[in-house]
Design a protein that fits this description.
homodimer, 236 residues, mainly alpha, Ribonuclease iii, N-terminal Endonuclease Domain, Chain A, Double Stranded RNA Binding Domain, elongated
Chain lengths: 236, 236
């Protein structure tokens, strides 16, 4: 197949091999090529539409796996874990583990934008998921390699709740329930001396105080407040 | 199969027939039964987990259809249309068209809660979508009957932009791009006499004014401001 770039077919086959997919897998190569083409390289033929589909594909893959391996989990915990699994941070890590940056066609001007790199890798991974889903009509080209990543991460999150990103989880919850994002307000309430927590965060929804939390940094105080609020709302 | 309710199997078969699915379709009946059981009827065996999966299934079905029928649409327009298609309002309408309320097992106390009825129907539809997806491993038991609804709605939305819910579309856009919801501020700037617009709405993201809009009602002014902001952000 001619994808308009010399050697592109071979390159994409290498990635598919890295993902552990069978050599004879029926793949729509032109979609995979598109999934790994950034908008800076082509304004019209790039990964944007596929990323839009892939966003739904990755949520489905994560949901189905959680349902299978944790049948007794509450939906609140599902939502909390899923919001972490499908975050840019995690998707970028997974993309990095396969060296996606070597396969993504991107204009050099955009490639030098280091702050956008995480989003770019996460978006490309989502687009690749869409290309593979559209190739098979099922998740069969996805789950064999994505599940192990999600399994391990989900187990880590459940084992050590401190690793949980409660701000993301709370956001998912309040958006779903109240169509609104939680708001944080942080005050410096302690000193750096004495070992006590320096910051106190309050989190509100629709102006109502949900919870307070303290921490040594602003971020830690916000996470502590989010954790309290998340548990409170989840039990309600 | 014994689903614990006399006549339940027959009832579910009737719904499947109404959806136009083949009589010999391989369906996981226990999942379909669960999908049509409200939490008020069983605290442990209800549709909540399936609804969680169904939320991803319906997004995928909508995304894939839009990608197929409007290959030249911008991702911004996709997002705007999808946000309407997967809204509680639309999903409830679709559920109603098949008389889902006759199949949902719900405690009478909850059934009398009319304000929750729309969400309940939308949730049950999502859960049914999950049960059908998990039965087939593909969207083959879903798209034949869901696509025609989505096709018609998407065409209406595109034909008559005034039907578009720009507030929902803008929210989808700013959440995706900026992880934040737009904020509206409405002032009464006109009178009821004279025919001019009575309200002016401002919409901001991160405190930055995106757009202003006017209307005869608060809602209309907000929609007008959202429309301006949506077009502005989408072109950016």
């Amino acid at each position: 197949m001619n994808l308009g770039y010399p050697g592109r077919q071979k390159q994409l086959e290498k990635l598919v091999e890295k993902l552990g997919l069978p050599k004879n897998a029926s793949i729509k190569w032109e979609l995979l090529h598109l999934a790994l083409t950034h908008a800076s390289a082509s304004a019209t033929a790039n990964y944007e539409q596929l990323e839009f589909i892939g966003d739904a594909v990755v949520r489905l893959a994560a949901s189905q796996l959680l349902f299978e391996i944790y049948p007794d989990c509450s939906v609140g915990e599902f939502a909390a874990i899923r919001s972490i699994l499908v975050s840019d941070r995690i998707l970028c890590k997974i993309a990095d583990s396969y060296g996606f940056d070597r396969y993504l066609i991107v204009a050099s001007s955009a490639a030098s934008d280091k702050t956008g790199a995480e989003t770019r890798m996460a978006d490309a991974l989502e687009a690749v998921l869409a290309a593979l889903y559209l190739s098979a009509g099922t998740l069969e080209l996805i789950r064999p390699w994505l599940d192990p990543h999600f399994r391990q991460l989900a187990a880590e999150i459940r084992r050590d709740p401190a690793r949980q990103n409660y701000k993301a989880a709370l956001q998912e919850l309040t958006q779903g329930k109240h169509k609104v994002l939680p708001k944080y307000h942080v005050l410096e309430t302690g000193t750096t001396q004495g070992g006590e927590d320096r910051f106190t965060a309050e989190v509100r929804v629709h102006g109502n105080l949900l919870a307070r939390g303290t921490g040594r940094s602003i971020k830690a105080a916000e996470q502590a407040a989010a954790r309290e609020a998340f548990i409170k709302l989840n039990d309600a």
